[in-house]
Amino acid sequence: MLQTFNEKNRDILVNINGELIHRDKAGISPFDSAVQGGDAVWEGLRLYNGRIFKLTEHLDRLRSSALALAFAQIPTHAEITEQIRRTLEANNMRDGVHIRLTLTRGVKITSGMDPRLNQSGPTLIVLAEHKAPVYDTAVGSHGLSLITSSVRRFPPDCLDPKIHHCNLIQSILAKIEANAAGADDAIMLDRQGFLAETNATHVFIVSGEGEPLVLTSRTVACPEGVTRATVLELCRAHNIPCEVRDISMTEVYRARECFTTGTMGELAWVGTIDGRTIGDGTIGPITRRLSSLYRELASTSGEPILS
Asked: 144-300 has which CATH code?
């Protein structure tokens, strides 16, 4: 699903280390670690009526990833939050906004891989855009179309997915396959052939056998998703049976419902996978209920960031 340009974003200001710069003028040094080697971590945030949903959880994950990569300096939650607030106020943004938060190891004194070349502190980038959830999966739509990618997700002994890093080549390769197949996104498997996630989101199914059971994969070959965790919390709070375990593609094909989760797309129902219709080809009752519960929670909670 190709995103289109939003004219509201024509003149947005981007925050780079506290300096607010027009999008056409914004840039980082060619010596920055993000340019040199993808040596950076990131988070996606969403703004609902002046509040950022699960802000602390996202900043916790950002710090955890930076610690795992041995960043010498990491801004505090308060420092990052202040730069987010400044960016939103400068752009007059309050609702329907997606924020891409990037923290790099910073600028190197000379080109090279060695982190000891980074001697000036990290680079913090706050990019806020007017952006609705990216998937158009309304009740009357056909839902998302997915294929299974040939690209496998790394296990922890190759590159731990709990590090939310900016090297997205695996995901991009899988997305290329999805584009070539005319699909919206691509499912990615772990090295054992079990469901990991898509190139952009986590995957949930509702088991087609017996009583409805919401299932999602373990975080062996996929990130610790904030939206994923929220959906599991909603299931437990509303007595919707759920389970986290290995899931084969056969189980996915025969599921009565399937949906994806992520900050940028919220909950999006899946209509077809590898040419197979999921369930009866319409949004299912469990997906519909969880989508409603999630949207209500996201729009009424969250950390106030704007007065």
From this structure: 3.20.10.10
Q: Cα 75 from chain centroid?
A: 21
Question: pLDDT digit string (tens) for 153-183?
Answer: 999 999 999 999 999 999 999 999 999 999 9
User: Residue ranges of the domains in the chain?
Assistant: 7-130, 144-300
On whether the CB atoms of residues 265 and 226 are closer than 8 A, the answer is no
Give the 3-state secondary structure of 174-211: HHHHHHHHCCCEEEEECCCCCEEEECCCEEEEECCCCC
Residue range 7-130, CATH number: 3.30.470.10
Give dist(CA 132, CA 212) in Å, integer: 30
Region of 299 on the Ramachandran plot (φ > 0 left; ψ -120 to 50 alpha; else beta): alpha
Q: Which residues pair with 268 in a beta bridge?
A: 260
pLDDT at 209: 76
Closest by alpha carbon to 241, among 216, 271, 277?
Answer: 216
Pick from 253, 276, 258, 262: nearest CA to 215: 258
> Do the strands 214-216 and 242-244 form a parallel or antiparallel pair, or are they unpaired?
parallel
